[in-house]
Design a protein that fits this description.
Blueprint (H helix, E strand, L loop, with lengths): L1 E7 L3 H12 L4 E5 L14 E2 L13 H9 L5 E3 L4 H14 L2 H15 L2 H12 L5 E2 L3 E5 L2 H18 L3 E5 H7 L9 E5 L3 E3 L2 H14 L3 E4 L6 E3 L2 E5 L5 E9 L5 H7 L7 E12 L9 E3 L4 E6 L2 E5 L2 E3 L9 H13 L2 E4 L5 E7 L6 E4 L6 E5 L5 H17 L17
Length: 415
């Protein structure tokens, strides 16, 4: 079969790229080995982080480094046998996370973030998925004055520099918003601009349905077979047929390097693994907003499936067996924060976040191949930036003026 474009990888980023290309009048084949939206895109905290102008950096304060060295925290965990392989990435990540570097990155990254809500709104409306979006924002909650004051000062600076809106909550105001949280909390920071998603997989499916309604096709196949075939790109589908497309877009998330390495690229990609579990609230307890327990490093989010507890980053080899120790550390603490009842999943979910050392995604034309495009490396912000990325890639391929300057995110920066 022949098509204008082949998108390999059907996570939320790949689906959004395919959808925008289809909207632009291109015929598009979307290919994945599994079910669309079923991997990393499923397991996130459901945040479209309009406030997330500073991508998640590597801590530089001495206390955090000591805590991480002990390897017993909720927000970070590492496999010793993975460190030699990860060391070059971690060193570069640490260097890019220095205050001056991080600030410079934030001003580039903000050009993507500022459109994240409006672009998702546009797709969700066309996909009939606005019922999956909530406009209550999300909260950081605090146990100590030191942490509270530091985060509120930071929020005020971000308001000044980026126009981000927030509310400072004292203990009484926090209890009014979240009466079932631990009453000993001293306050919170309420980010009011973000939108939250109560079913990330449902959102992926809704976007996919719109893509197919517009004439797009999804097929299962081995994205790793993507090969240049004359003046076109080919991929082998599960039924052994070969699909040919003029353009090919790699949106394989944490598996992108498997393909890009074979094509001769040595991009500095790594993964951060993460876990989640769903719980039934005890009694009539209700969680009204997604909540970060700031000093402990885990997240609670109300979802259709129950209250989702997500952990921080695990630094390990991508395909290593599950080691949900962070979830085991977080669960008893989370139950004191909010009355969580029985587990609703048979086992913890594990996903991989595709990361770059400069904390910015790789979006744009591949430097060594004609009509090959990259769209991956979104780290913690795959859901947040999916719709923005999809529009950018479609505009680049179509030769239109790109609504966000793609230069800072170009693959060529690692050439």
């Amino acid at each position: 079969m022949r098509t204008d474009a082949i998108v390999v990888g059907a996570g939320i980023v790949g689906i959004s790229v395919a959808l925008h290309l289809q909207k632009a009048g291109r015929s598009v084949l979307l290919v994945d080995r599994g079910q669309p939206g079923g991997e990393t895109s499923y397991g996130n905290a459901g945040l479209i982080q309009r406030e997330g102008v500073y991508p998640y950096g590597f801590p530089h304060d001495f206390g955090a480094l000591i805590r991480y060295a002990m390897n017993n925290t909720i927000d970070a965990h590492y496999h010793w046998n993975a460190i030699p392989k990860l060391a070059p990435f971690l060193w570069s990540y640490w260097m890019h996370s220095r205050a001056s570097q991080h600030e410079a990155i934030a001003h580039k990254y903000a050009t993507l973030i500022e459109h994240c809500v409006s672009e998702h709104d546009a797709l969700a409306q066309k996909a009939g998925a606005t019922d999956l979006l909530r406009r209550k924002g999300w909260m950081k909650v605090f146990r100590t004055e030191v942490e509270r004051d530091a985060r509120l000062t930071e929020a005020q600076r971000w308001k000044r520099d980026f126009g981000l809106n927030h509310r400072a909550l004292d203990a009484e105001a926090l209890r009014a918003e979240e009466p079932h949280l631990d009453q000993s909390l001293i306050g919170g920071l309420h980010w009011t601009d973000p939108v939250t998603v109560i079913d990330p997989l449902g959102l992926s499916k809704a976007y996919l349905a719109l893509f197919e309604k517009l004439g797009g096709r999804f097929a299962q196949g081995d994205a790793g077979t993507l090969t240049q075939d004359g003046d076109r790109w080919s991929v082998t589908l599960a039924d052994s047929t070969k699909a040919l497309g003029m353009d090919a877009i790699v949106a394989l998330g944490p598996w992108a390097d498997v393909l890009t390495n074979r094509l001769g690229y040595r991009l500095p990609l790594a993964v951060k693994r993460g876990y989640h579990m769903h719980y039934k609230p005890l009694g009539k307890a209700v969680l009204n907003h997604p909540v970060l327990d700031t000093e402990r490093g885990y997240f609670l989010a109300p979802m259709r499936q129950g209250v989702r507890l997500t952990t921080g980053a695990e630094f390990a080899n991508r395909d290593a067996p599950k080691t949900p120790v962070q979830l085991a550390r977080a669960e008893p603490i989370a139950k004191t924060l909010f009355p969580l009842g029985e587990r609703l999943d048979a086992e913890p979910w594990l996903g991989n976040r595709p990361c770059t050392p400069d904390m910015m995604p790789i979006i744009g034309p591949a430097p060594k191949h004609r009509n090959l495009w990259f769209s991956f490396g979104h780290a913690h912000h795959g859901l947040t930036l999916a719709a923005v990325t999809g529009r950018m890639v479609a505009e680049m391929i179509s030769g239109q003026k790109v609504f966000v300057d793609p230069t800072p995110f170009a693959p060529a920066r690692f050439a």
